[in-house]
Design goal:
Blueprint lengths: L16 E6 L10 H9 L3 E6 L12 H18 L4 E4 L11 H14 L3 E5 L4 E2 L2 E2 L2 H17 L6 H5 L9 E5 L6 E4 L3 H11 L2 H4 L8 H13 L7 E8 L5 H13 L1
Parallel strand pairs: 1-2, 1-4, 2-3, 4-7
Antiparallel strand pairs: 5-6, 7-9, 8-9
Helix pairs in contact: 1-6, 2-6, 3-4, 6-8
Length: 260
């Protein structure tokens, strides 16, 4: 890959407040948490919002006990990358359904935390790891719509009554997207902390037959993604800057300038 083909890096100090919205415990840890370690090391405050407690994730354990275990492992995973706050909603694991209530709950979290960047997983049926899981798709799409809802005072007006003023997010970052636009250099300590975050889910991972060793898996993924940005290890995102002109406008102006 030549230099002209490399994707740009997002600087480690790009954001001050980042909210990660996902469906399950461990969703952030499968690839995104090394980038979280970069952001917290640069001084950003990062918070997680999980729509479920992952109670349907372990066939050999009762759902209530599974939820307790997975919440505990998720909190440990957060600490590994410098995240002090993780909130869990009570949507049912495995059978998430897109709803206005889900959008409202995510909008509430955005308005309360007021991030300048929101990180989601892909809502596409097919993404970089293959066919996407149903809860992931629902969580991604609901959170995408909630970003717009959060900035509109006339949507979910009951949140205004709760004292939660509208908030416009500047950046949307989607991990696992099949068409990434930017990367985060996670070489070194950030990678090690990201690996430790996934390893914190030890009891859950032990129930997955044939799961590869975490350092091998996360190291391999980030090395492969690092090639796209010209660094040893990276995490890739599809990034939208809502303060930038729409891409179609940028292309139109460039073509007009060339014509002149």
């Amino acid at each position: 890959m030549t230099d002209r083909q490399l994707l740009p890096l997002l600087p480690g100090d790009s954001f001050q407040r980042v909210l990660c919205v996902v469906a399950h415990p461990d969703d952030v840890e499968y690839g995104t948490s090394p980038a979280v370690a970069v952001w917290t090391a640069a001084g950003a405050e990062v918070s997680y919002l999980l729509l479920t407690r992952g109670e349907a994730g372990m066939d050999s354990l009762d759902p209530a006990a599974t939820a307790e275990l997975r919440v505990r492992e998720q909190i440990d995973a957060c600490h590994a990358v410098g995240v002090e706050r993780v909130d869990f909603l009570d949507y049912p694991d495995g059978v998430l359904e897109y709803s206005l209530q889900m959008r409202r709950d995510i909008t509430r979290a955005i308005r309360a935390f007021r991030p300048d960047a929101v990180v989601l997983g892909s809502w596409d049926v097919e993404f970089v790891a293959g066919l996407n899981q149903a809860d992931h798709r629902v969580a991604g799409l609901a959170a995408l719509d909630a970003i717009r809802d959060a900035g509109n005072r006339w949507v979910f007006t009951d949140l205004i009554e709760e004292g939660l003023a509208p908030h416009s997010v500047r950046w949307l970052l989607v991990g696992g997207h099949s068409q990434p636009t930017h990367g985060v250099d996670v070489t070194g300590e950030a990678l090690e902390r990201g690996i430790a975050a996934l390893e914190a889910h030890a009891q859950y991972l032990a129930t997955i037959p044939g799961h590869p060793p975490v350092p091998l898996m996360i190291g391999g993924i980030t090395r492969m993604q690092g090639q796209a940005v010209g660094v040893p290890n990276a995490v890739l995102f599809r990034a939208w800057d809502f303060q930038a002109p729409p891409p179609i406008m940028t292309r139109m102006l460039a073509e007009q300038g060339n014509a002149d």
